[in-house]
Amino acid sequence: MKQWIYLDNAATTPVKHEVYESMKPYFAEVYGNPSGFSDFSEQAKDAVEQARKTVAGFLGASADEIYFTSGGTESDNWALKAVAFANRKKGKHIITSKIEHHAILHTCGWLEKAGFDVTYVNVDENGVINLEELRQAIRQDTILISVMSANNEIGTIQPLKEIGAIAKEHKILFHTDAVQAYGHIPINVDEYGIDMLSASGHKINGPKGIGILYIRKGTLIESFMHGGEQEHGRRAGTYNTPGIVGFGKATEIAQTLLAKRSAYESELRDYLIGRILTEIPYCRLNGHRTERLPNNVNISFQYIEGESMLIMLDQKGICASSGSACTSGSLDPSHVLLAIGLPHEIAHGSLRITLSEETTKEDLDYVVEELKKIVKRLRSMSPLYEDFIKEKTKNV
Ligand code: PLP
């Protein structure tokens, strides 16, 4: 198999060996239905409940506030739609930010069609939500604030504590899409005033198709999947036991490694940012310089098409991304990059590199060397770059 330097960890991550091993018995050996009453089912149930406790412990929640779902998209849909419908007598207004993942933005669009009002708050040039605008947006009938913990494209971490305090002050529910942040930065739901939180297994070296929604006790929210009595009857459907066990194990590992991994990755991240910005002309860092995920680098290169850069990196065995996994494939510029004020042509020339604890300095040195050649080659084919250089030399 071709050897890759895998730098697309925000899109998805490999399942860790220990996670895979922890899941294996639950496919063909301990396969009882956790909802059953036999001793055999009990073993599967114990494993599910153990995973729930691990996740709850990591978030500072209690086990009965953790609901297993099929992933981040489902958790986001559940949080928004089910709060909206459960609270519609109280109000029909929701506040979110302009840089949310499509799992939030498209759900908000759907809710607007269903008669709810949504305010999309701006972010600054670093991707940080404007807290004053958030305050101003609050109305008598606001029922929910949903702001992501950290952005999937530019890595900016939001001031969760401040948002939580604003929500609490106005007795509004606060949901956070923590799909990118969970396992990468510490989050305590009480400390941050979070009422609901979405996370996903495949972003933390766990399996795909499993996630959680944390719902604070007492939150007024409708059931999402109707059917059996699983998850207190709020999210019906036979338990995905192997997935849940894998999610629990991945959480346990992420919790143990968090501080060490974050220190390692942020050092590599800053090394890569430093090298690119000093060695490649006409590029800029997107996202906050310090309040960003430890593994996220997002750079815009002027006079370059992001897609061409990706193809050439791919030919060199480097796997990165030009936007979020869900939007690549579309030719529209990223809504996140436009929201931080980048013009279309610069947004189009953006590259997202997301590291892991397996990434080495040597990998990054190779990436920088290849990037320098690729950028030079692509610019040499760009009439716009040629005009820019001509203009520049004329003015010297
Ligand atoms: N929210 C964010 C911020 C994400 O980055 C993603 C996936 O990239 C999702 C939600 C969707 O999660 P899932 O892939 O588990 O459905």
Mean pLDDT: 95
Q: Identify low-pLDDT runs.
A: none
Strand residue content: 5-15%
Put simply, the count of helices is 13
Strand order of the largest sheet: 2-8-7-6-5-3-4
Q: What hetero molecules are bound to the protein chains?
A: pyridoxal-5'-phosphate
Protein architecture, described:
It is a single chain. This protein is α/β, with parallel strands linked by helices and 396 residues long. Helices cover 42% and strands 13% of the residues. It has 13 helices and twelve strands. It has helices at residues 17-23, 25-28, 39-59, 72-86, 102-113, 131-137, 160-169, 241-279, 306-315, 335-339, 344-347, 361-380, 383-395, and strands at 5-6, 66-69, 93-97, 117-121, 142-146, 173-177, 196-200, 211-215, 283-285, 296-301, 318-319, 350-354. The longest helix has 39 residues, at 241-279. The mean pLDDT is 95. The chain binds pyridoxal-5'-phosphate. Pyridoxal-5'-phosphate (PLP) binds at residues 71-73, 76, 101, 103, 148, 152, 177, 179-180, 200, 211, 324-326.
Structure, briefly:
This protein is α/β, with parallel strands linked by helices.
